[in-house]
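Hey, sorry to bother you again with one of my protein questions. A protein chain has come my way and I'm curious about its shape. It would help a lot if you went through both lines with me. I owe you a coffee for this, so here goes:
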Amino acid sequence: MSSLIRTGPDRRPHTASRPSTPRIAAARTRLEIAMYFRERDSVIFSFLFPIIMLGIFAVAFSEQIGPDEGPIDFAQYFLPGMVASGIALVSFQTMALSLAIEREDGTLKRLRGTPMPPMAYFLGKIGMILVVGVAQIALLLAVAALAFGAELPTEPDRWLTFAWCYALGTAAGTVLGIAFSSVPRSAKSASAVVVGPLIILQFISGVFFVYTDLPSWLQNIASVFPLKWTAQGMRSVFLPDHFEDVEVSGSWQHGSTALVLAVWLILGLIVCVRTFRWRRRDDG
């Protein structure tokens, strides 16, 4: 008899399913990229600074550098350092400054109050860094090859080294930027607090000077930080093989490079989890 009883249409309220975290992160990545390129001053500095510095080296130093068996032009020698500098600018500096500003103007506080998962927000930031970083390095390499005659590697193993060194250097720089964003006390002081130490590291990490020409005590300080290892890894990609003998250790030290960058990545993640703040210091 129960089969003769007609049931009416299901009148239960339908709830819209929430988009998955990856979908939200992809949408957030597109938004972050759009917002990044609206900040023209930041874009011009991040994209043009390594190119301008490489051009200065190419014009100011016409002689060649390196061992007697195969010296190279200054532009070729300093190209790896400019690549490493670009990675630091796009990952560490961009992340630290943008988060400090968003915390100051209340953006982070408002986002924390939305249903958006925090992981989607950070994945959006990371996605933006990866896209912008690839574009910046592609432009730098194109200008270096076409305008300054730099020779780009053709061996697949060198590009494989470039890939893992870029990935680890960018990942470490990004999480360290997130962690360091809590250091500035305000958005006004963020530029000085973030850019100042980064400029110092560039001078002692083999970016603007030949690393082996620096005093040993400066080399020891630089070897603690990831920028020195990123620059050394990039030298193994863009410099001839015999330049390996010029390194302090007489080796490219790929294993040590991967280890140091991985350690900084892990330390940065730990510091991020423990210290990241969604609100200003004076907002509770």
In short: Strands lie at 64-65, 72-73. Residues 205 and 222 are 5 Å apart (CA to CA).
